[in-house]
Hints:
Blueprint: H1 4-34, H2 64-69, H3 73-83, H4 119-123, H5 129-137, H6 139-142, H7 156-169
Amino acid sequence: xxxxxxxxxxxxxxxxxxxxxxxxxxxxxxxxxxxxxxxxxxxxxxxxxxxxxxxxxxxxxxxxxxxxxxxxxxxxxxxxxxxxxxxxxxxxxxxxxxxxxxxxxxxxxxxxxxxxxxxxxxxxxxxxxxxxxxxxxxxxxxxxxxxxxxxxxxxxxxxxxxxxxxxxxxx
Length: 171
């Protein structure tokens, strides 16, 4: 019925068809995106009475001081779980990162038994709540070259809760 040559031809035809569809999709995609669609101004703009000039005002949200004043320490303890993978709370007990007992108000890079990357020393002197907020939002953006591999906390409320929890530990 089917010999080896027939099976080879059928398999070759299927692979060729698949290759033709993939190549066609690639060509269509390159034609569609190569035209520079959307890179130019509108050809005709309809003026609308009462419309603003197009300036977008971004609401920065509440100030950190306001959010920090209303921070929830119990919620901050829940936020600590993510930090506990690399940091410890006991004095002198470092993990991948330095211990964080008493970090609020402490000098940057002041843990003697920990080897800091140097990027933090160049950026800041003391870990105030405001500085911790900026660091926790985006560690790599705050101190480029830092060895901390954390992507950051996006919500300002979560950062304020965590900082309030850390601040409450050492009275």
